[in-house]
Design brief:
Blueprint lengths: L4 H14 L38 H10 L11 E11 L10 E3 H13 L5 E11 L1 H12 L5 E9 L3 H5 L4 E4 L4 E4 L12 H20 L5 H8 L11 E4 H6 L5 E2 L2 H19 L5
Parallel strand pairs: 1-2, 1-3, 3-4, 4-5, 5-8
Antiparallel strand pairs: 6-7
Helix pairs in contact: 3-4
């Protein structure tokens, strides 16, 4: 026997009047012909998963990746670019090497230059050097940006990291950071002909010219540091610690992230005044 909707509504009204707790929608009252829902254990297919109270997925990911339960999200007009590990150029380095790829950094700098929200850039370096042309390309982009740029050497800014370290409008180096200055070297097969040495001299002159134009160090002093003997066990050159780099004019000032950001904010305010933008 089937019951139509009109009869079912009449039945529910009678049940509601006799037992106010048993209303339509209550599991105690089921429509005729309905199949009872089996009470299965959590985790059985067809049952909704049991909700586990605790940390959210985003928090657990932060703990796993960063070791902190929460990462502060700060909307800022300053963008941070890191140059770490080995600067990778035209040749892909092995997977175990920590690298900075120039095809990642250069588009990022171009986007910063075009962005209206970003007013300044801080470059943090901890690099052993790498590809000469890739390093010079990054340094040239930084040096020609119209927005204020500040560089900070933490740990090390060696080899081709030196031109990047001096490419900003103002440069800082941590007291314990170091910079290695040495001649250009080639890896792999080298043909022992005069043209090879002429090519090395020209490439070396490019590096020397850039460094001397974007810092207070003289060409004579930089060449002397580059070709000094007795300091490096397997090469000629010089290792300079924070204070030494400032005294020779290679880096502007000793400082850390606080001093670098303070200087960058000052440069941003000066840039606003030149453009006639009201101070904030």
């Amino acid at each position: 026997m089937e019951i139509n909707n009109k009869e079912w509504n009449l039945v529910t009204e009678i049940v509601k009047n006799d037992n106010p707790g048993a209303v339509p929608g209550n599991p105690n009252v089921e429509p005729p012909g309905a199949i009872p829902t089996p009470q299965t254990a959590p985790g059985v297919p067809g049952n909704p998963p049991k909700r586990i109270m605790g940390q959210s997925r985003g928090t657990l990911e932060s703990i796993k990746e960063l070791g902190t339960p929460a990462v502060p999200e700060v909307k800022s007009n300053i963008h941070c670019v890191t140059i770490v590990g080995q600067i990778e150029g035209h040749i892909i380095l092995p997977g175990q090497n920590k690298t900075t790829k120039y095809e990642h950094v250069i588009p990022q700098l171009v986007a910063i230059e075009q962005s209206d929200e970003v007013e300044g850039v801080v470059l943090i370096l901890n690099t052993v050097g790498g590809d000469v042309e890739a390093g010079l390309a990054i340094a040239e982009v930084v040096a020609t940006m119209t927005k204020p740029t500040v560089t900070l050497v933490l740990g090390g800014g060696h080899s081709i990291g030196v031109p990047i370290a001096v490419s900003g409008r103002y440069s800082f180096i941590a007291p314990t950071a170091s910079m290695t200055i040495h001649p250009i070297r080639l890896n792999g097969l080298v043909i022992g002909v005069p043209q090879t040495y002429e090519y090395l001299d020209k490439m070396q002159d490019r590096v020397i010219r850039f460094v001397t134009q974007h810092s207070r160090v003289t060409e004579e002093c930089f060449r002397e540091l580059m070709f000094r003997t007795g300091e490096l066990a397997r090469d000629i050159g010089t290792v300079m610690i924070g204070k030494d780099a400032v005294e020779c004019g290679l880096i502007d000032e000793i400082g850390g992230i606080g001093q670098a950001l303070e200087k960058l904010k000052q440069l941003i305010e000066e840039n606003r005044q030149q453009k006639g933008v009201p101070l904030q």
